[in-house]
Write a structure and sequence with these properties.
- By secondary structure, this protein is α+β, with helices and mostly antiparallel strands.
- It has one domain (about 5-235): q2cbj1_9rhob like domain (Jelly Rolls).
- It contains six helices and eleven strands.
- The chain has helices spanning about 30, 40-50, 60-75, 110-120, 125-130, 220-225, and strands spanning about 5, 15-20, 55, 90, 100-105, 135-145, 155, 170-175, 185-190, 225, 235.
- It has a seven-stranded antiparallel β-sheet with strand order 3-11-8-2-6-5-4. A four-stranded antiparallel β-sheet has the order 7-1-9-10.
- Helix 3 runs antiparallel to helix 4.
- It starts with a strand and ends with a strand.
Amino acid sequence: MDALASQNLMGALPSLRYAGYEGKSMLMEDILKHSTRVLSEKQRSRFFEDGCMVVEGLVGSEWLGRLHEAMASNVEASRAVTESDTRFVLESGHSADSPRLRRLSSPVSHHADFWSFASESVSADVAADVCGHDLKFYHSKLNFKWPGGGQRFDWHQDIQAWPHTDYSPVTVGVYLEDVTEAQGPLKAIRGSHRAPLYSMYDENRNWVLRIPEENLPADWREREVSLTGPPARWFC
């Protein structure tokens, strides 16, 4: 389940990826036979129709506070880092006095509350509602957007970059800060999860992780949706 996505600049955003167990991935028809745990039946049906959705009200203030503290502790740790490594992806201008991160890789490995959120909060239940009840946690990341900075991503599909052979993976994310149109939010094209996979190599066969707009469906602008929202708003 992978709608085309595009990203300009974003607020702090932990992104968790789940997938069906190898050999146990469920088809949509089988998933719909089971009652939802968190989502309404209408929300789940809309997700299967559009390939993306946003949901509010699933993360309480306590969880949000714990995630903010976990984020702050990692930003503080990044002050001692002068170049990107397996933990921190630094943005231009990063320094000990003014830390600027582009990404915290695998946050669940760097603070217990991130793993608690991935394994004990409703995030796994949200994933189960759309992937089926047999789940495997795959990956996590925390993206940042700093004033005057950020990274642009063009239209792309994630599945080609993942080591999976089916369409069971789903990304579940939650905003830690307000994400508005002015910040260049994550965007998706409704229904594009049913489109064919696109090549993301350029004319010289270099991997570029982008799909030129001229290669998109003719009506893509009509189906484009911005996944904006306040803190604690979920997206899939």
